[in-house]
Amino acid sequence: MKKLMLLLISTLFLGACAKMKVSDFEGQEPKLDLFTYFEGKTEAFGIFEDRSGDVKRSFTVDITGTVDGDTLTLDEQFVYSDGERDERIWVIKKLSDGRYEGRADDVIGTAAGLSAGNALNWSYVLDLPVGDTSYHVTFDDWMFLQPKGVLINIAKVTKWGFNVGRVTLTFQKQAGS
User: Fold this and answer.
1) Cβ(143)–Cβ(122) below 8 Å
2) Deepest in the core among 41, 45, 79, 157, taking most CB within 10 A?
3) Contact call for residues 48 and 166 (beta carbons, < 8 A)
4) What is the pLDDT of residues 87-104, one digit of tens each?
Protein backbone atom coordinates (compact mmCIF):
# COMPACT_ATOMS: atom_id res chain seq x y z
CA MET A 1 0.00 0.00 0.00
CA LYS A 2 2.87 2.36 0.85
CA LYS A 3 4.44 1.75 -2.56
CA LEU A 4 1.15 2.46 -4.31
CA MET A 5 0.72 5.75 -2.42
CA LEU A 6 4.33 6.75 -3.17
CA LEU A 7 3.83 5.94 -6.87
CA LEU A 8 0.57 7.95 -6.96
CA ILE A 9 2.15 10.97 -5.25
CA SER A 10 5.21 10.80 -7.52
CA THR A 11 3.01 10.63 -10.61
CA LEU A 12 0.96 13.62 -9.48
CA PHE A 13 4.09 15.61 -8.64
CA LEU A 14 5.78 14.85 -11.97
CA GLY A 15 2.57 15.65 -13.86
CA ALA A 16 2.32 19.00 -12.09
CA CYS A 17 5.91 19.82 -13.11
CA ALA A 18 5.31 19.11 -16.80
CA LYS A 19 4.60 22.31 -18.69
CA MET A 20 3.63 22.69 -22.30
CA LYS A 21 6.26 24.48 -24.38
CA VAL A 22 5.80 26.42 -27.62
CA SER A 23 8.55 24.30 -29.18
CA ASP A 24 6.25 21.26 -28.76
CA PHE A 25 4.25 22.67 -31.72
CA GLU A 26 7.13 23.29 -34.14
CA GLY A 27 6.09 21.99 -37.56
CA GLN A 28 2.37 21.79 -36.70
CA GLU A 29 0.03 23.02 -39.43
CA PRO A 30 -1.57 25.30 -40.30
CA LYS A 31 1.27 27.66 -39.37
CA LEU A 32 0.16 30.64 -37.29
CA ASP A 33 1.45 34.01 -38.47
CA LEU A 34 -0.05 36.46 -35.99
CA PHE A 35 0.21 39.47 -38.32
CA THR A 36 -1.31 37.70 -41.33
CA TYR A 37 -4.09 36.18 -39.25
CA PHE A 38 -5.21 39.39 -37.52
CA GLU A 39 -4.79 41.87 -40.38
CA GLY A 40 -8.25 43.10 -41.36
CA LYS A 41 -11.49 42.16 -39.57
CA THR A 42 -11.80 39.26 -37.13
CA GLU A 43 -14.58 38.32 -34.74
CA ALA A 44 -14.26 36.36 -31.52
CA PHE A 45 -16.65 34.58 -29.17
CA GLY A 46 -15.64 33.85 -25.61
CA ILE A 47 -16.52 32.78 -22.10
CA PHE A 48 -15.00 33.31 -18.67
CA GLU A 49 -15.14 30.40 -16.22
CA ASP A 50 -14.36 30.81 -12.53
CA ARG A 51 -11.96 28.46 -10.71
CA SER A 52 -14.81 25.94 -10.26
CA GLY A 53 -15.47 25.81 -14.00
CA ASP A 54 -18.77 27.70 -13.80
CA VAL A 55 -19.32 30.05 -16.74
CA LYS A 56 -19.69 33.54 -15.28
CA ARG A 57 -19.69 35.66 -18.42
CA SER A 58 -19.80 35.39 -22.17
CA PHE A 59 -18.77 37.99 -24.70
CA THR A 60 -18.07 38.82 -28.32
CA VAL A 61 -15.21 40.86 -29.73
CA ASP A 62 -14.98 42.74 -33.03
CA ILE A 63 -11.32 43.14 -33.93
CA THR A 64 -9.70 45.36 -36.53
CA GLY A 65 -6.04 44.63 -37.20
CA THR A 66 -3.67 47.01 -38.96
CA VAL A 67 -0.11 46.03 -39.91
CA ASP A 68 2.61 48.65 -40.38
CA GLY A 69 6.01 47.00 -40.90
CA ASP A 70 6.91 45.07 -37.73
CA THR A 71 3.92 46.44 -35.78
CA LEU A 72 0.38 45.05 -35.52
CA THR A 73 -2.30 47.23 -33.93
CA LEU A 74 -5.42 45.39 -32.77
CA ASP A 75 -8.51 47.45 -31.96
CA GLU A 76 -10.70 45.10 -29.88
CA GLN A 77 -14.33 46.07 -29.15
CA PHE A 78 -15.88 43.84 -26.46
CA VAL A 79 -19.60 43.34 -25.82
CA TYR A 80 -20.45 41.27 -22.73
CA SER A 81 -23.62 39.25 -22.16
CA ASP A 82 -24.72 41.72 -19.45
CA GLY A 83 -24.49 44.62 -21.94
CA GLU A 84 -21.19 46.05 -20.70
CA ARG A 85 -18.84 47.28 -23.42
CA ASP A 86 -15.09 47.60 -23.30
CA GLU A 87 -12.17 48.34 -25.59
CA ARG A 88 -8.55 47.21 -25.66
CA ILE A 89 -6.02 48.41 -28.20
CA TRP A 90 -2.97 46.21 -28.51
CA VAL A 91 0.24 47.38 -30.16
CA ILE A 92 2.30 44.29 -30.93
CA LYS A 93 5.86 44.28 -32.26
CA LYS A 94 7.31 41.33 -34.15
CA LEU A 95 10.79 40.49 -32.86
CA SER A 96 13.08 37.70 -34.07
CA ASP A 97 12.75 33.92 -33.72
CA GLY A 98 8.95 33.84 -33.38
CA ARG A 99 8.95 36.30 -30.48
CA TYR A 100 6.50 39.18 -29.99
CA GLU A 101 6.02 41.91 -27.41
CA GLY A 102 2.82 43.82 -26.85
CA ARG A 103 1.38 46.72 -24.94
CA ALA A 104 -2.14 47.86 -24.10
CA ASP A 105 -3.40 50.49 -21.65
CA ASP A 106 -4.64 47.89 -19.15
CA VAL A 107 -1.57 45.63 -19.44
CA ILE A 108 1.02 46.14 -16.72
CA GLY A 109 4.44 46.31 -18.37
CA THR A 110 4.95 44.39 -21.59
CA ALA A 111 3.28 41.20 -22.80
CA ALA A 112 5.64 38.54 -24.10
CA GLY A 113 4.73 36.12 -26.88
CA LEU A 114 6.44 33.17 -28.51
CA SER A 115 5.17 31.33 -31.57
CA ALA A 116 6.06 28.06 -33.30
CA GLY A 117 4.05 26.00 -35.78
CA ASN A 118 0.34 26.52 -35.17
CA ALA A 119 0.75 27.82 -31.59
CA LEU A 120 1.42 31.05 -29.74
CA ASN A 121 1.95 31.45 -26.00
CA TRP A 122 1.23 34.96 -24.73
CA SER A 123 1.92 36.00 -21.10
CA TYR A 124 1.04 39.27 -19.41
CA VAL A 125 -0.35 40.95 -16.30
CA LEU A 126 -3.71 42.68 -16.74
CA ASP A 127 -5.20 45.41 -14.55
CA LEU A 128 -8.68 43.87 -14.25
CA PRO A 129 -11.46 46.12 -12.90
CA VAL A 130 -14.04 44.37 -10.72
CA GLY A 131 -16.67 46.60 -9.19
CA ASP A 132 -15.05 49.58 -7.49
CA THR A 133 -11.56 48.07 -7.40
CA SER A 134 -9.10 46.41 -9.76
CA TYR A 135 -6.79 43.43 -9.52
CA HIS A 136 -3.53 42.63 -11.26
CA VAL A 137 -4.01 39.14 -12.67
CA THR A 138 -1.65 37.08 -14.80
CA PHE A 139 -2.80 35.68 -18.13
CA ASP A 140 -1.12 32.63 -19.66
CA ASP A 141 -2.70 32.57 -23.15
CA TRP A 142 -2.32 29.72 -25.59
CA MET A 143 -3.55 30.19 -29.16
CA PHE A 144 -3.85 27.33 -31.64
CA LEU A 145 -4.64 27.84 -35.32
CA GLN A 146 -6.94 25.15 -36.67
CA PRO A 147 -8.00 24.27 -40.22
CA LYS A 148 -10.44 26.63 -41.96
CA GLY A 149 -8.99 29.65 -40.17
CA VAL A 150 -10.37 28.95 -36.69
CA LEU A 151 -8.08 30.17 -33.92
CA ILE A 152 -8.70 28.77 -30.43
CA ASN A 153 -7.44 30.71 -27.39
CA ILE A 154 -7.33 29.25 -23.87
CA ALA A 155 -6.07 31.53 -21.11
CA LYS A 156 -5.36 30.56 -17.53
CA VAL A 157 -5.93 33.50 -15.20
CA THR A 158 -4.03 33.52 -11.90
CA LYS A 159 -3.36 35.85 -8.98
CA TRP A 160 -0.34 35.23 -6.75
CA GLY A 161 0.00 31.85 -8.47
CA PHE A 162 -3.53 30.76 -7.55
CA ASN A 163 -6.11 29.87 -10.21
CA VAL A 164 -8.75 32.58 -10.69
CA GLY A 165 -10.37 31.15 -13.79
CA ARG A 166 -10.11 30.51 -17.49
CA VAL A 167 -11.00 32.43 -20.63
CA THR A 168 -11.80 30.48 -23.78
CA LEU A 169 -12.14 32.25 -27.13
CA THR A 170 -12.57 31.25 -30.74
CA PHE A 171 -11.57 33.67 -33.50
CA GLN A 172 -12.81 33.65 -37.08
CA LYS A 173 -11.82 35.94 -39.94
CA GLN A 174 -14.76 37.96 -41.24
CA ALA A 175 -15.69 37.50 -44.88
CA GLY A 176 -13.59 39.65 -47.19
CA SER A 177 -10.74 40.11 -44.66
Assistant:
1) yes
2) 157
3) yes
4) 999 999 999 999 999 999
